[in-house]
Structure formats: C-alpha cells, structure tokens
C-alpha cells in the first residue's frame, strides 16, 4: 500500500512530467470508476502536484485567455492499495487508467493518468486536506513531534506502539512497512505500550553544555522514535524510483527492495495486530502481543512476494457445521490489510468487513469471498 514517501514521490513525478506541458479539453473519467466526475474543462491549463502525509493534491490551473473562463481546481487523491500516476501517449493508455488529463494540440497527444488496478483509490473534489489528519511526518516534522507529545493522554497511546503508529491523526504518512522499519532500527518490541515509549521522549533532553554540532551528531547517531518517523520516510524519497511496489520485476522498485531491513525479510517474525495488519519484527514481540497469536518466521526463498500481497486461507471455526467447513476449503479470506482506505484516520481506514447473512448449517456461497 502506498505510504507517505510514495505520495511524495508521485507528486515529484507529476511536477517533473508535466513541466512545460499544456493540457486542454475536459477531464475524462473511466465509466467503471465509482469516483465523482471532475467538472473541469479548459482550452489550456497547467497541472501541478503537492503531497502531505498519505494524500496528494493535484491542481489544474487555466492559462490566461483560456476558454471557457474557469477558476483553478484542486483534487485530493488517496491512492488506496495500488494508485499511481503515469504519463502515456493518448493512443496507448495503460490499463486501469480511471482519470485522464489530455494535452492540448499541437504535437503528439499525451495523457496524465491516475492508474489504480484494484480501484480502492479515490479523489475528492473539495481540494482540502482531510480534516483530522496530523502534520506530515516528512514535511512538517516539528509540528508532527509537538502534536504527538502534546496528546499522549489520547486513548490510542494505550495501545501497542505498532498500532499507534498507524493512527493518521498523529502519524500522517506512516504505514505498514514504515512502522516495521522504524521499530526494527530501534530494536523496539512492536507490542510495547505506546505511551510508555513516548513519555520517555518528553523527559529526554540533550545537555546544554553540548555545542550545536555535538547536538546534531548525537541526534544522528541516536535518533529517537519520532525522529525516525521523519528520517526513515525521507530515506525512501531519496532512493528515487517509485518506493514501495512489486517485489519482483520493474527496476523502479529494485532500490526499495534492497533498502528494506525488516519488512518481509527472511529471518524476521510476524504477527497480526488487532486490526489484522501484519507487523514484522525481530526478537520479543512485547507485553501487549495478542494472546494466542502465533509468531511466524520468514523463511528464505528465491522470489519473495510482498507480505501485504499474500492471501492466506484461514480454516473455519472448529464448531462450524461440516458443510460450512467444506465451503471454506480453498476459498481465500480477504484480510483487513487488503481493505481500501476510506474514512477512518486509522490505517487502514475502514474497519474489518464482517460477513453478513451467514446462518448456522447453511453452506457458504462463493459470493462471500468476492474481492
């Protein structure tokens, strides 16, 4: 799932790819997308982008004299599980291009496309960053740090640190792979109580006797959790490419795969948190680890699949009728990690989907596993 660095890289791509291009005409939405139509048409306009946390703002700015007269329009994009932007020739559009912006003549026509294979991504016509999201961990570090330490009484900090890190009210831009990499670097158990971890940061102060260069050196050598929430995403941006993506194939993802130290790496352990997300770690999981949760150790293999791309088959409850057990056999369950982001500020944004209408003794139908 794209996280803060991927949205930031996407905004950089849009600005670089669209620099000097003039777009024209109406914005076109694919007929199968459930997102809203974009009420914008102009004979000549520019496109620019900016990112904040897990959101990207795309701004359409009409040029002087463009017809019909039109005010600039901004769209807010959430990438869901697989969203991205691509620039392609208009006669060779990529599959799953659900929103298209066409260049104006003369010259070969190009199209900026919002591509979303799984269709969990969405755009908002308001042009405003989602209310309730905290400061961006990448671009607003000081505000981000202050927001966390000022609100430690919030009940989310009663939870394990690995779960608190996904709350976008406080950690806007942090997602599943980033939390694993951050905690691994600190050798911190993922199921340590969040407030215990963060309260210690309020007490920690560098000696006033240190010079500025000594303070900077100390921070670089021994960063705390909140500093890593800023510097680790920054490392991904500095890698270039596309950041998180396919585990095999495209060269754009090779630097990212080489950069990973914990997430989905052979030798690491994994557990599901209470929201169904897989957390990767090394060593002791911590005192708040799920009771009865079984830690799995990643084995070395040739071509590794991304941990969030795997689908696990869960056995039926032991008390379920035999007919239900047979129906479950071989049918993959859609995990919470595979649900789209929508409204909640926890990551992922939607609560786990519950199965409705299942009755005791009735054979389960294939429709319950529809993706």
Automatic annotation (TrEMBL):
GO cellular component: centrosome; chromosome; nucleus
Listed InterPro entries: Endonuclease-VIII_DNA-bd, FPG_cat, FPG_N, H2TH_FPG, Ribosomal_uS13-like_H2TH
Coiled-coil stretches noted in the UniProt entry, renumbered to this chain: none
Formamidopyrimidine-DNA glycosylase catalytic domain mapped to chain residues: 2-121
Example GO biological process: base-excision repair
Record EC number: 4.2.99.18
Chief site of localization: nucleus
Pfam families: Fapy_DNA_glyco, Neil1-DNA_bind
Biased composition (Polar residues): 333-342
Family per record: Belongs to the FPG family.
Stated role: Involved in base excision repair of DNA damaged by oxidation or by mutagenic agents. Acts as a DNA glycosylase that recognizes and removes damaged bases. Has a preference for oxidized pyrimidines, such as thymine glycol, formamidopyrimidine (Fapy) and 5-hydroxyuracil. Has marginal activity towards 8-oxoguanine. Has AP (apurinic/apyrimidinic) lyase activity and introduces nicks in the DNA strand. Cleaves the DNA backbone by beta-delta elimination to generate a single-strand break at the site of the removed base with both 3'- and 5'-phosphates.
Protein's UniProt name: Endonuclease 8-like 1
